[in-house]
């Protein structure tokens, strides 16, 4: 199936495996926003979720299939265990997509067979073709994954893959589920599959890997040299445990070192044809969006998208870069869209300028959303002289993340200092429309504010995470706050941005409380029924 001039397929699983990161839960609108940005980034396949897992996942996959899975958009994929109910849910959720893919999986390592599945190899060999064939009744595009392939017996793996392809799998994905393999081992595994699975040319070989030993990206690059043509990865490398292979690292490795990888795809070394469909100038923006919506910050020294990735601290390096950038830089900050952060708007900017800049940034807002965003923009522009693209993105993302306003912060006032006890007075409007005011003392102004809010809200929750980061440099930067609450094992997140971090903190907390309240008072009964049917 792979002709020499084919390029590398980028399969993004930020919304599925990435969302499995502890605490990275996203709501439907947040997932849709990320999916739209992934489409702008140029990914070939978006794994939008695991439709059978929950009504929320089902709805999110369905909505992404409908709105992002257009004929010229990416393929939309849904995950399903090798079980009829899972596959049917995925098939139904993906139905609106112009190009839908079902990704079905079952473990093949002896340890998973014995302890997790309690099945024999023969059982698995019977299940795989049956379930792949069943998935084919919903779509022609079926991907099969032998989970924990990295620790499976290669001879058994070859048999399973042959059976999956014979039953119609068009992509076979090789996961290093526990991030155990090394680059030469993983490359060897892919080579072994190419050499020993008789019908392998009827399918694309894909790779999926976790970063437990920090080797996921290196393993994928070795896999390309040995015949892999699809990479499953996530933005900022988020995912289970230590995460997945990072999309931005793979895309830039294949961009910067194109000449090195050209021969693996049968191209002349000097070929200028991109190896992937990724628009690298969208990388930074996508990274920021995912970080802001998931509340998972990017470490400063993270390759490609970390705050220090293009910073030169040592005098010798700075001197070299001033003389010739290439002395210490192997890629331009512009190539990942980093220098596009011009100051674009200020408090005198009109609605038209605001709207057209948002359009250029790829935001499609309804009239009502635009009016609301413009009001927010004006409010911020009064506090902050220069509004950059990142500020604009933060204002709009913040708005996207707001749950229906069930609780509203009406007033926050704090008093704090090194010789004062931090105190806060907070007024909150409740879903019943009543305004309540309480005051509290805390270890700091945020703690005092949260204690005051707790006195007003009669719900049971535990604050498990509080993070604040600034959107841009400078004393007047917007502060973005993400809060996570736990209620009976479920996590509810809240997010807010403001030039005043105490106000942002109060709003983020109240947004999370609003989400919890919404979930308690209105479970998604309609979808619950829908999924119960499968
Ligand atoms: O890590 C893994 O094995 C997976 C599979 C479902 C592909 O995520
Ligand atoms: Zn995984």
Q: Could you name the key traits of this structure?
A:
534 residues, alpha/beta, eight-stranded parallel beta barrel, three-stranded antiparallel sheet, 16 strands, globular, disordered C terminus, binds 3-methyl-2-oxobutanoic acid, binds zinc ion
List the helices and strands and how they pair.
Blueprint lengths: L8 E4 L15 H14 L3 E5 L5 H13 L7 E7 L2 H11 L5 E8 L2 H8 L3 H16 L5 E6 L6 H13 L4 E6 L6 H14 L7 E6 L6 H10 L4 E4 L13 H10 L1 H4 L21 H12 L20 H9 L19 E4 L4 H10 L6 H17 L2 E3 H12 L7 E8 L6 E8 L5 E8 L2 H12 L5 E9 L8 E9 L2 E9 L2 H21 L3 H9 L1
Parallel strand pairs: 1-2, 1-8, 2-3, 3-4, 4-5, 5-6, 6-7, 7-8
Antiparallel strand pairs: 9-10, 11-12, 12-13, 14-15, 15-16
Helix pairs in contact: 1-2, 1-11, 2-3, 2-18, 5-6, 6-7, 7-8, 11-15, 14-15, 16-17
Walkthrough of the structure:
40% of the residues lie in helices and 19% in strands. It is of the alpha/beta class and 534 residues long. Helix 1 packs parallel to helix 2, helix 2 packs parallel to helix 3 and helix 2 packs across helix 18. The longest helix is centred in the C-terminal third of the chain and has 21 residues. The radius of gyration is 25 Å and the shape is globular. The two termini are 34 Å apart. The protein binds 3-methyl-2-oxobutanoic acid (KIV) and zinc ion.
């Amino acid at each position: 199936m792979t002709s020499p001039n084919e390029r590398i397929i980028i399969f993004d699983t930020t919304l599925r495996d990435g969302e499995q990161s502890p605490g990275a839960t996203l709501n439907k609108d947040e997932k849709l926003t990320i999916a739209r940005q992934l489409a702008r980034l140029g990914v070939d396949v978006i794994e939008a979720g695991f439709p059978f897992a929950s009504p929320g996942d089902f709805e999110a996959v369905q909505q992404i299939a409908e709105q992002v899975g257009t004929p010229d958009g990416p393929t939309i994929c849904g995950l399903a265990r090798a079980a009829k109910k899972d596959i049917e849910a995925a098939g139904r959720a993906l139905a609106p997509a112009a190009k839908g893919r079902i990704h079905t999986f079952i473990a093949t390592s002896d340890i998973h067979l014995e302890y997790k599945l309690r099945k024999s190899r023969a059982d698995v060999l019977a299940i795989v073709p049956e379930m792949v064939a069943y998935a084919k009744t919903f779509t022609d595009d079926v991907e099969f994954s032998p989970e924990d392939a990295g620790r499976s017996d290669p001879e058994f793996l070859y048999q399973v893959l042959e059976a999956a392809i014979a039953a119609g799998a068009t992509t076979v994905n090789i996961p290093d589920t526990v991030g155990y393999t090394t680059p030469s081992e993983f490359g060897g595994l892919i080579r072994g599959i190419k050499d020993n699975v008789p019908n392998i040319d009827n399918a694309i070989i894909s790779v999926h890997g976790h970063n437990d030993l920090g080797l996921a990206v290196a393993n994928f690059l070795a896999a390309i040299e040995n015949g892999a043509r699809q990479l499953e990865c996530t933005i900022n490398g988020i995912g289970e445990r230590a995460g997945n292979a990072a999309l931005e690292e793979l895309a830039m490795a294949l961009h910067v070192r194109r000449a090195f990888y050209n021969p693996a795809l049968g191209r002349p070394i000097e070929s200028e044809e991109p190896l992937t469909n990724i628009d690298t100038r969208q990388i930074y923006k996508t990274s920021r969006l995912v970080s802001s919506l998931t509340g998972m910050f990017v470490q400063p020294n993270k390759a490609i998208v970390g705050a220090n990735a293009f910073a030169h601290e040592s005098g010798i390096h700075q001197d070299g870069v001033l003389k010739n950038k290439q002395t210490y830089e192997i890629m331009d900050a512009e190539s990942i869209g980093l220098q596009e952060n011009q100051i674009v708007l200020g408090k005198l900017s009109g609605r038209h300028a605001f709207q057209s800049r948002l359009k250029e940034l790829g935001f499609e807002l309804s009239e009502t959303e635009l009016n609301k965003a413009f009001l927010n923009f004006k409010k911020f522009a009064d506090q902050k002289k220069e509004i950059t693209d990142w500020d604009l993105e933060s204002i709009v993302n913040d708005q996207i993340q707001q749950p229906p306003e069930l609780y509203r912060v009406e007033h926050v006032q704090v008093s704090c200092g090194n010789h004062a006890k931090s105190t806060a007075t907070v007024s909150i409007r409740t879903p019943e429309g009543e305004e309540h005011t309480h005051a509290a003392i805390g270890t700091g102004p945020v703690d005092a504010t949260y204690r005051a809010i707790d006195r007003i809200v009669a719900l049971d929750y535990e604050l498990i995470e509080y993070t604040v980061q600034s959107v841009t440099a400078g004393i007047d930067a917007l502060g973005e706050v993400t809060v996570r609450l736990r209620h009976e094992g479920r996590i509810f997140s809240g997010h807010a941005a403001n030039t005043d971090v105490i106000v942002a903190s109060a709003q983020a907390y109240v947004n999370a409380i609003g989400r919890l309240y919404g979930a308690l008072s209105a479970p998604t009964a309609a979808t619950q029924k829908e999924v119960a049917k499968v």
